[in-house]
Design goal:
Length: 163
């Protein structure tokens, strides 16, 4: 019989307690146990970045991380970004700057850029491109994504200044 462990974590602000197999990946836990299918699986080797989520505010490849490794952590997926149906400045900038096409890479890219904007409030284009180097997008050519990230950074800074 497969070994199991009690897992307690917060996912998108909701406390979750669940017994899971110790070898279950965080990606499979999110997708199959919690029905949070915004976490996409591409390569399942940690290369494409489609499965990227935030664990305690830091990006993590959920296909490489076991669910039990997130015990006690706060996990945020793309489903937890918008609040009460209101898009974040980053999500809104993606709409306005055509930062997505097919959308497969978008959840991982949004997670990556969320950490970037928390870390570097005024990133350069080179910063954005470097942070995106672990996220593969086969549709956009990245320019719309970069433009969206820079516009979101500006909107966030201006919003913070206006408070």
């Amino acid at each position: 019989m497969a070994e199991r462990m009690l897992l307690m974590l917060s996912v998108n602000g909701t406390e979750i307690t669940r017994e899971v197999p110790v070898r279950l990946t965080l990606a499979d836990f999110l997708r199959h146990e919690l029905a949070l299918t915004g976490t996409h699986l591409g390569c399942e080797h940690g290369v494409c970045g489609a499965c990227t989520v935030l664990v305690d505010g830091r990006t993590a490849r959920s296909c490489l991380m076991l669910a039990v490794q997130a015990d006690g952590a706060a996990v945020q997926t793309v489903e937890g970004m918008a609040v009460d149906g209101k898009l974040t400045p980053l999500q809104q900038a993606f709409v306005e700057h055509h930062g997505l096409q097919c959308g497969f890479c978008t959840p991982g890219v949004l997670a990556t850029l969320t950490e970037l904007l928390e870390t570097i409030p005024d990133p350069s284009e080179a910063d954005v491109r470097e942070w995106l180097s672990g996220n593969i997008c086969r549709c956009t050519g990245y320019q719309g994504i970069v433009d969206a990230a820079l516009a979101a950074a500006k909107a966030i800074r201006e919003g913070a200044a206006g408070e």
